[in-house]
Amino acid sequence: MQQALLQVSDLAVRIGQGDGAVRPVDGVSFEIRPGETFALLGESGCGKSMTALSLLRLLPRPAGEIVRGSIRLDGEELLSLPESGMRDIRGGRIAMIFQEPMTSLNPVMTIGYQIAESLIEHKGLVGGAARQRVLELLDAVGIPDAARRYDEYPHQLSGGMKQRVMIAIALAGDPDLLIADEPTTALDVTIQSQVLDLIRKLQQERGMAVMLITHDLGVVSEMADRVAVMYAGQLVEVASRDVFFSAPEHPYSVKLFAAVPDSGKREDRLTVIPGSVPPLNQSFHGCRFADRCHRAWERCISEQPGWYEVNDGQQVRCHLADPAGTIPVERPVEAETGPDTAWSRDTADAEALLEVDGLQVHFPIHRGLFKRVAGYVRAVDGVSFSIPVGQTLALVGESGCGKTTVGKGLLQLLKPTAGSVQFEGQELTRLKGEALRRSRTDFQIIFQDPYSSMNPRMSVGDIIAEGMVAQRIGDSREARRQRVAQLLEQVGLRSEHARHYPHEFSGGQRQRICIARALAVDPKLIVCDEPTSALDVSVQAQILNLLQDLQQQLGLSYLFITHDLSVVSYLADRVAVMYLGRIVEEGSVSDVLDNPQHPYTRALLSAVPQIDQAAKREIIRLEGDLPSPSHPPAGCHFHPRCPIAEPGCSHSYPPVTQLSASHTVRCHLQ
Amino acid sequence: MIQPVILWTDALVFLLTAVVLAFALYARRREHLRAPWREVVRSRMAVASLVVLCVYAVTGLLDSVHFRQALEMQEGQVEVQYSGEVTSLLDLLLGPMRSQDEKTYSAPFATRLFTKETVIGPDGEKSRTWPRLKYGGVHLDDPATQKGPDIARRVARAASESMLLMLITGLLLAFLLARKWRQPLLPVLRAMLRGKTDIPWRTALGTILVFVMVIALIVNLSGAYHVLGTDKVGQDVLYQTIKSIRTGLVIGTLTTMIMLPFAVMLGMLAGYFRGWIDDVIQYLYTTLNSIPGVLLIAAAVLMMQVYVANHPEMFETMAERADVRLLFLCLILGITSWTGLCRLLRGETLKLRELDYVQAADAFGVSKFNILMRHLLPNLMHLVLIAVVIDFSGLVLAEAVLSYVGVGVDPTTMSWGNMINRARLEMAREPVVWWSLLAAFTFMFTLVLAANLFSDAVRDAFDPRLRTQR
To answer: Most CB atoms closer than 10 Å: which of A479, B163, B382, B403?
Structure first.
């Protein structure tokens, strides 16, 4: 076996003092070999980022402290180095890139200078030599026209470009190990695949090791050589990629795979991991996963599991893997059943509940002293679709394509510039004042961020009852209180939760409260604006199941706004793909996902990291970024990025082509 | 027989006290309102400042209960006549200090006047000397030898009294805590004295001890001596500084009370509705901000002065006249100082209105008024609170400066600014008359320092940005 590049043993970190002290990393041991990609996988709050920061000794001061353990880089102990020695390691031997490229760059310095800074520090290059090297680095990370970009400032670059610059800074010191902390989480799928490609390419060229921190199984599957699964401050499983994806050992890993939605699980309910990650300010006596584990028995609660080797290189922290232990008979997993499975997803012509025709939302751009209107941001530029009763339309697109604006525009939270929105035959855009207020009981919205969507100073009961009060539903306070209790139970919470405040709940629970709030006014349509993208995979499955159950029980229609295609295939009946304010392809789920016709849809589908590596597919890489909606490209909006564009594409916007009864596309080449 | 007098500022001070108490009762049952305050009282600095502020506040409140005492019945008089002089509860407590006026300056603890006078002795002989004071140290036959031991005796008595009082207070506190935590008395007492309790009771007791000591000293000494000397017209300086506390507090609190409705309402309206409402409000505060504040205050106060002088029939007593001017000063200070907070709140509202919970309320058809009251206002309150606490000390200082310039409170109102104004000429004197200035400075400094330290703690606990960093 090769000599390890980085060897971490029994690392433990404590944050804070006294009773409230949190131990985000508690006895973590692993090693990274030269040139390999080591993925650290886990849900949020598991201590992944803290592990990475402690490798560089960058824990938040003075609260954070490494309490024990050792970190050896090529045999040299990092924890005993003086701070000045650490500065040569940081950037020089180990470099790090962060999740949020928007805040990782200094906005008042040119990007060239920010890269050169690292060169000056670690390579002693100055002047022309440094500039030359920066240009080489910019070239290496795939930034076109490097000489011009050298003198630009971060705000002139897009998110993907900024992440490339961050990578260039990290590479400047020629590190042996690159730590990438969720490098693509803040980026869109098409950009994500560009950045992952780049990391893979650079790794092969330079032979450096990469430690990839992520929560996304798809990314792990595409990138990693070895995988470590982290749960509540400890590693629970380490294995090579192939072994991990073919035979995960730890019940947590097994459940993670089952919780990922895709079209194959469409007819069933998603497997959920009940509960959430335990808080790390307690001392554990048993297995940390025991209370969420479907195979836990008495021993799991009373005794901490050891670290066992099961196969070649596969190690697991679980009593099930103890060769000396006796394993109880596996209980049959009670399949969590939906309320009524007889309900069928019949897409046949149900009556349309909502009919949107030519919806436009333009925002004026004001310039100059007198705030003259200098132009318009065409956030939504002529969108038409309809949603039948009891069905789900998914609106898919990258960030900035206007999908959230569509949602707000049809709810009349933003005033549409033109077009019509007909709800049960009633024209919403012409409603005003009291009539509009009254009609709001029929359509509701669930937001992306469960943390900012509830007033922190109101109790949960008041939050849910607010809509009822405003719509005069429920005649007495007592009637409303009972309804709130009933709603809370309907979304899987307890009625006594009504007295609590939002900050006492986890992200998944908050999203349940938001759903209860929306249901309180008996809506017929709910706009779900990325309701699961801020949640972990295991919690996401809980929410998706809940939404599906509610649809079956109450016959709700959903407009499901998302960028996550795997969720689409699980939940939606119809899919509309948006690009730059317009729908480019629309059809039933099977039409669009299995037989995509628009080149953008194809690229989007191929860019999603797949867990199943066996089903190799041809990946279409899109170049560049989404153009600005204030200056959309002439002709077909997609033609500058389109891999199959023809000269004619830049002349006119393509008309709608009807491919089949349920499938339409807007492309000249169809 | 007394006749209660409620001055304008009294009424407002009582109203403010009632509001604060009502909020405290309301917040007691609401965890999210209580939590930051619990954070505040965990800091030792904040607890010590809080004790200081409480002592000042109690003094100010005692001084706000005003009444007129009945005059003695003359023969043949049927109706009770009341004195033209308005006194307060504090005046009664301070007792002799109020009436024991000397002829002119005397130094602290002096037994003789500060200036030489021609005195006609018992034998009819004229001499230039420092005459004995009428009240200060009058019980001593030979001040030169007796004064030292007499003061020492009184200080010792004050010390023993305060120790006894502290012992009782400490035990009582321990007893109450023991009952609340359901624990035996002794361990609670030990934890308290070792500073192991959650709320730093030891610090609180220490600060209380200092004040008990000071009060005991005043009680024991002020009857027999002028502890801080007397001023030009022979009034006790200590009495003046204590009376000035109310003026300082009134300016500091009522001004913010007057300015808050403007700042909060206009700031929220501008931020929430935007458009032309925003333009109008921004225009208003930008304009107001461009007028020099002192100029505006001077003009307003002078106009007020003329009005009061022309309408003597509207005011029954001198105190009422002085009080109206004090109130007017608060008003004009409030009008010139709401712009900063208003701008801050407008910005915060602009941010909050885009948050999902406001949008959700919109989607429910909640009325604009309810959105402002239920969703925006409670989430702005921490900013308001921080601004109020920080502004307080600035306003106390502003009063001193304005009175010094001559556009502050009425010359008959006792205030630190007036004291400083009157003492400034004496600074050039040889030997210098330093006690007036020093007394005003010390009292004001203590109040402002305590308010500043307390506002630091409040900001730390309430500012969400600071909170996440820790």
So the answer is: B403
